[in-house]
């Protein structure tokens, strides 16, 4: 029985035994597991951040269009820039 199963992009599954790994491979594997766990933990926060950023962008655009529509905007040579 294998310790590790890896599914390739084409759907093929490769199996490996952790006991056959070198110390360096085990270290990299453990690092990978820790990073995967951290990604799982922060993914909801990342989604929330992306949603909030999108909301800020939409509200900013709405405000700018509203200000331009009522004649509050002064003509200038500068451009509005969004930093992503």
Quick summary of this structure?
This protein is mainly α.
How would you describe what is shown here?
- This protein is mostly helical.
- The protein is built from 1 helix and 2 strands, in the order ββα.
- It has one helix at 23-69, and strands spanning 4-7, 13-16.
- The protein has a two-stranded antiparallel ribbon.
- The longest helix is centred in the middle third of the chain and has 47 residues, at 23-69.
- The chain starts with a strand and ends in a 15-residue tail after the last helix.
Keywords:
2 strands; 84 residues; mainly alpha; two-stranded antiparallel ribbon; 56% helix; rod-shaped; 1 helix
What is the secondary structure topology, with strand pairs?
Layout: E1 4-7, E2 13-16, H1 23-69
Antiparallel strand pairs: 1-2
Mean pLDDT level:
86
What is the gyration radius calculated from CA atoms?
25 Å
Strand arrangement, largest sheet?
A: 1-2
User: pLDDT below 50 for ≥5 consecutive residues: which ranges?
Assistant: none
Largest sheet: 2 strands, antiparallel
Q: How helical, in percent, are the residues? A: 55-70%
């Amino acid at each position: 029985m294998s310790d590790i199963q890896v599914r390739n992009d084409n759907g093929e599954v490769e199996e490996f035994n952790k006991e056959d790994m070198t110390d360096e491979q085990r270290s990299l594997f453990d690092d990978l597991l820790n990073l995967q766990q951290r990604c799982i933990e922060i993914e909801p926060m990342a989604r929330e951040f992306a949603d909030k950023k999108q909301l800020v962008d939409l509200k900013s655009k709405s405000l700018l269009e509203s200000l331009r529509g009522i004649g509050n905007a002064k003509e200038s040579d500068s451009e509005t820039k969004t930093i992503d």
